[in-house]
Write a structure and sequence with these properties.
45% helix; single chain
């Protein structure tokens, strides 16, 4: 039985209908009506940037909802539990009821901080010792191997997939399509990334922050003016 262990996440852009000019078009329809599209076409970045900065500063959020992104994401189940708390997104996830789940499991990387210091709501993470890292790696791998072996044994005995999957640990990978608009994406980034000096600091779990970092890079490439204003 060959198990795959990895310490990363996959985020790929499937498709998008998103641009900085779409934000301006959506905003100006409130005052210009059907002329809004003509006013935006060919507009200089400096003028677009000024409008976007105004909208961002004054918290006029709805114009940012007209740019959408669809991502393919592969991450551990425990990351999906946090991700799906963001209800301003649409999800279609692979189903353990209808397919045999692949033996692909997350293990912390060597640079993953292991020790929580402080009380709930006011804590930091620090580097673990070599002994702590060793027991973590051994425990993850041993548990995954035993669990997946039990899963396959049940499937081999004719047990339904939806029943057999119950023995699998939450570090098994699952994949899904995620669709969200730019406003929802900015909300996700603001909560799932730690940024030094941020006016509203967040303290995300490292593994979901890895997803957010990949989202951020795609967002920056497709909507650079909106991204700069957001930051």
């Amino acid at each position: 039985m060959n198990l795959t262990f990895r310490s990363d996440v996959t985020v790929e852009l499937v498709k998008s209908s998103a641009s900085d000019s779409d934000v301006a078009f959506a905003a100006r329809v409130s005052t210009q009506g059907e002329r809004a599209q003509d006013l935006v076409n060919g507009e200089e970045d400096t003028k677009l940037s000024g409008l976007i900065n105004f909208l961002m500063r004054e918290r006029h959020g709805s114009p940012f909802e007209h740019s959408t992104f669809t991502f393919y994401v592969k991450a551990p189940i425990f990351v999906w539990r946090e991700h799906m708390r963001h209800r301003m997104a649409s999800y279609n996830e692979e189903s353990g009821r209808y397919r045999v789940l692949e033996p692909e499991f997350y293990v912390p990387s060597r640079d993953r901080k292991l020790v929580q210091v402080g009380k709930t709501g006011a804590y930091t993470f620090e580097e673990g010792t070599s002994e702590q890292m060793a027991i973590t790696m051994v425990s993850y791998r041993r548990t995954c191997k035993e669990a997946y072996g039990n899963y396959m044994d049940m499937l081999g005995a004719g047990v339904a997939r939806e029943v057999a999957r119950g023995v699998l640990p939450i570090n098994i990978y699952s994949s899904a399509y995620v669709t969200m608009n730019a406003r929802a994406l900015m909300n996700f980034l603001s909560l799932r990334m730690s940024a030094e000096g941020s006016h509203f600091p967040s303290y995300p779990q490292r593994e979901i922050e890895m997803v957010a970092e990949k989202y951020e890079q795609i967002f920056k490439e497709i909507m650079p003016l909106t991204y700069d204003s957001f930051v």
